[in-house]
Structures are given as C-alpha cells and as structure tokens.
Amino acid sequence: MNKNSLSVAVVGHANAGKTSLMRTLLRDTEFGDVADQAGTTRHVEGSALVIDESNSLALFDTPGLEDSIRLQHILSRYFTDKSVDGIERLHYFLAHIADYPEFEQEAKVLRALLSSDLIFYVIDLREPVLGKYRDELQILSYAAKPIIPVLNFTAQGGDNLAQWKAQLARLNFHALVSFDNVHFNFSDEIKIYQKMQTLLADKESLLQKFIVQRQCQWEERFHAASEIVANLFIESACVRFKTANTDQEVEQTTLKLQQVVRKAENRAVRQLLKLYQFRKEDLANSQLPVEQDGWQLDLFSVDNLQEFGIKLTSDIAKGAGLGVAIDLVTAGMTLGAAAFTGGVAGALWGVKKRYYEEIEAKIKGCRYIALNDVTLQVLWLRQLKLLDLFQKRGHASFDKIDYQVSNSGHLLPKNWSKWLRQLRSHPNWSSLNKNMREAEDSKRQLFADKISSEIVNGLTKL
Predict the structure, then answer these.
(1) What is the pLDDT of residues 159-205, one digit of tens each?
(2) pLDDT in tens, 4-58
(3) What pLDDT is stored for residue 46 in this prediction?
(4) Residue 204 located in a structural domain
(5) Is 218 part of any domain?
(6) Do 190 and 298 sit in the same domain of this protein?
(7) Are residues 195 and 258 in the same domain?
(8) Residue 256 shares a structural domain with residue 189
(9) Domain span at 140
(10) In this structure, is residue 424 part of a structural domain?
(11) Above 60 in pLDDT, residue 237?
C-alpha cells in the first residue's frame, strides 16, 4: 500500500449492510454478493477509489462477525495474570487460530482490522442493541484503530437510533455517521470522509483532496444528466413531420413520429442509466418493459397522462392521448380535420405569421405533425422524476425504479409556454427531423444550457 494512500476495513455483524455500503461508495451494483441470508461474504474483497495517479482510498469488505460473544470470551481469558493491551490479545489469537477452526471467518476480519488504517463499523439500525453487538465493538477496540460507526437503514430503523447512540457513547465511539445504503444522500457520504479527516489528522490534506474530487464528480454527473434531459426535451419539442392531408397519411406519419420519439426517450434513459452506473434491469419491468428498443408503457399512453395528474377536460384535449398536434397553426392543440372549421380556425388565424410554413402546407393539402403540449409535459415531468430518483438511489437498492407514478412533486417551469413557442419555431434544432440543425447551433446550445440550469436548480431545491 502506498504510504500516501488509505485502507479501510468495512466490518460488522453478518447481514448489516457491509457489501451494500461498498456498492454505494464504489457506485458499483455488481460488487460482491448481497442476499438476505447471513454469511454471504465469505472472503475479504477489496476495491479502491482513486484519488490521483499515486493515491487511492482502498476499501475492504469483510465476512460478518457471527459469534462475537464466544470470541470475546476467548480473548478475555488470555493474559489474565498480566496487564496487556487488546491488540496483543488479537495477535495471540491469530497465532493460535489452528486451535479454533470454527473462527476462520472471524480471523479474516481480525487480520483486516490490523492491516487497515481505519475501520467502518456498519450497524443495522433495524436491530436493537444486543449483547453480541457490544462484544463486537469491544473486539474492534482491541485493534487500536480509528473506528467510524456507520448507521445503516436509517429510514427504517429510526426507533433504535437513540439507543444505539447512547451505547456507542458509552464505549467512547462519538464519530458516528448516518448513511443509508438504499435511500442515498450524497451529503451523508461527504460526512463520512470528513469524519475520517477528524480521526486521521496526518491524512487530512489527502482526504480533503479526495472530498473535493468526489464533489466535482457528483456535480459533473448531475450537470451531464440535466443536459441529457434538456436535449431530449429540445429534440422532442422541435420535431415535426410533414404529411399529406389524408386520414391514411396522417395516421402513418403519426405512428412514425411516435416511434421516433419513443426511441429518443429510450436512448436518453439508457444514457442516464449508464451515467449513474445503474442497470437496465433496475427499471420496474411491470411498468416499463423494454421490448424492441421501445417502452411498452410510454408517453403516448392516455393512462400515463392521467397518472401524472394532467387533466383532459375537453373533447379536444382528450385527443391529446395520441401525443400529436395536427396543424401547428392551432398553437399545439390536437384537432381533427372536422374540428378545424369556422370559429376555431378564425380564432387561431392570428398566429399565421409565426406559422407561415404550416399554413402554406395546409393550403397545399399537407400538414405538419408534432408533439402537443400535454405529451411534452409528460416527457418533461417523468424525466425529471427519473433524474431525481437516480440522485437519491443507492447502488445497494433492490427496489425497481418506477418513474411513472402520479404526484411526482415536480412542477412545470414558469417559462414553459415561452419555451414551447421558441422551440416550435426552430425545427432545425431537432436531429429527429430529416434536415436538422442547418443553422443556429450556438443558439440551440444556449437554449439547452438554459433548460439544464433550470433542471439543476429545480431538483436542488427539492
């Protein structure tokens, strides 16, 4: 181990969440084995968080301490006629491990303790303080290494928090942190490293460098994710397909548009999964089965619109379930050919200057088909919900990611209508159109940056 690097042993009772902690800190859903039964981890497994080309933070996952009561009883019988430190008891035990083959797993843990700079003691807060946990803490103290108790499952074990804090204080463990491996909070992770700084004064500057690096990585990931969502929104709001003004042609073009947008959203979701290092399998299959590169339940579903609390109150608006605006001259509402008559056409004729091409196409017997406001609302809201879920999801979570639920907690931006008006006047900004981005790439990027900032600011406030 490089003298400028750090090594941490992750220890605790069987099934307390040691491997889950490793997965979350490493952002690796594949590290180790996680299961409900005790003793899943049978060997010491390690991985490292790279600080720079010459420094790293090495983490070592250890087997669970399964019989700490008996182990403590054995250790306490050593040197009864002498005054010795606990570390000497551990060395003596390991030197005579052949006499205790049943403690093979515990011996691996003890060796990891003695060879590491610091110890994370993972506590399952769902469990009350029992005698076996007191003995575990006593054994850990023998190693004469800094110990940070990590309180896991805080969302479910809140009732035992005060009891555990009191017990830890009695054993002089005060540098504890709350860190739920499933309900992730990045600020809690930073607190772990800050506690390490307190306990390892000689490594303070190295750990500060690491903290800054982790914060930068987190912010860069967040901004990259917001750009993915922003670009999907621009691509979808700017897309439009031209079609002949017949029912058959309109229907075929509508289906093509829906397929193109589905694929675009699918690509964006996969990009987000990769960015946050989650798997396609983490998505809720019952809600979002992936078949032939498309979402089976998608933003063109009327049920999906209603799930997001978008009310379809009028006969015209109910047609929005198709997710298509026929005739952009109608300012984005879905109207059938029969509806485009008399008073409706007259009331909307004031937008003729902005939508000159669309009006001209209609006169010549053609139409432009695009996504309507309602569908774009769903696209926006559920992508924000997905991004919010990724920000708060630990890599040890087994729960499926379901972002098609009502009451997402996200609101439309104040400039929503203004955004749509601007975007619909720039079809060349969408790669989903045949002739995309013929000009004004810089303006498109500025618009994407504006939307990305709105996303970051909005989610940060939640």
Answers:
(1) 899 999 998 998 888 889 998 888 889 999 999 999 999 999 999 99
(2) 689 999 998 888 888 888 888 988 888 855 444 444 555 788 888 888 777 888 9
(3) 81
(4) no
(5) no
(6) no
(7) no
(8) no
(9) 6-199
(10) yes
(11) yes
The CATH number of residue 107's host domain is 3.40.50.300
Q: What are the pLDDT digits (tens) for 254-270?
A: 888 888 888 898 899 99
Taking residues 408-436, what's their average pLDDT?
81
Q: Are 255 and 246 within 8 A, CB to CB?
A: no
Per-residue model confidence as pLDDT tens digits over 332-345: 333 344 444 444 34
Considering the domain architecture, whether residues 60 and 189 belong to the same structural domain is answered as yes
Residue 220 within a domain: no
Structural domains counted in the chain: 2
Together in a domain, 164 and 245: no
